[in-house]
Amino acid sequence: MLPPIDAHAHIDVRIQPRELVDLGAVVLAVTRSIEEWRFAATRADELTLWGIGCHPGVPEAVDAFRKADFDEALRSASFVGEVGLDRRSRVPMDRQIEVLTAVLASVQRTPRPVTIHSTGATRVVLELLENQPIQGAILHWWRGTESETRKALELRCFFSLNGHEARSPKAIAIIPPDRILTETDFPHSTRYDPKADRPAAMETIERALVAQHALSGVDDLRELLWTNLRSVFKVGASEIPTSRRVGSLLLG
């Protein structure tokens, strides 16, 4: 059986490598600031890939964002995340948009998958993606309307779904199987999905997706998810840094 995929999780950058291997899953571990990324960049994990992020809800991260620093770091990152917009943030929306616009411009030049936060700002995120098209956009914990979801599909976005969204089958029903990934958003989803008590605890969302798409079981679902992840990581001509083991899984 292929390993589970957790396409969005928050993990302490100082965690012991063995603990991540013991998860038995491929995890896309997001960071929230350039400072956190600098610790992550020194790691060489077997199954966990680390992203460079600037979380819109962390004022210190947004204040510290410098495009030149981001561009330099991007070359050694496996993906970008977590970035995006958040209406609840204390950071002014104009500044959030400025940062996300700069990130998208960087990714147009150095293609990477991008996992995007969009709380309370789904429409604006889609407008930015339409104005600055990228490949490999992953809308994490999506809360958009049906029309916004269909717009995101037109823009070739993917969606990483978690156990909370398994309780909202309307969203799952709209998204076709070739655009889905699974996530925990650990530790933030534990209040909605108690089984997601660690990164890569995918049972709730995997079960929901097997039922939604009338699959024969988790094996079939993971074949589908890995096909989708391979599509996400084929975002451009440049080679994306991954571990040898994850790279071999992505090659199929």
Q: Describe the main β-sheet briefly.
A: 8 strands, parallel
Question: Topology as H/E string?
Answer: EHEHEHHEHEHEHEHEHHH
Tell me, rounded to a whole number, the average pLDDT: 94
> How many beta-strand segments?
8
Task: Specify Rg, calculated over alpha carbons.
Answer: 17 Å
- Give the structural class: alpha/beta
Q: How are the strands ordered across the major sheet?
A: 1-2-3-4-5-6-7-8
* Assembly form of the protein: single chain
Coarse morphology: globular
What would your notes on this structure say?
With 252 residues, this protein is α/β, with parallel strands linked by helices. 40% of the residues lie in helices and 15% in strands. Strands 1-2-3-4-5-6-7-8 form an eight-stranded parallel beta sheet. Helix 7 links the parallel strand 6 (137-140) and strand 7. Helix 4 (67-74) runs parallel beside helix 5. The model has no long low-confidence stretch (mean pLDDT 94).
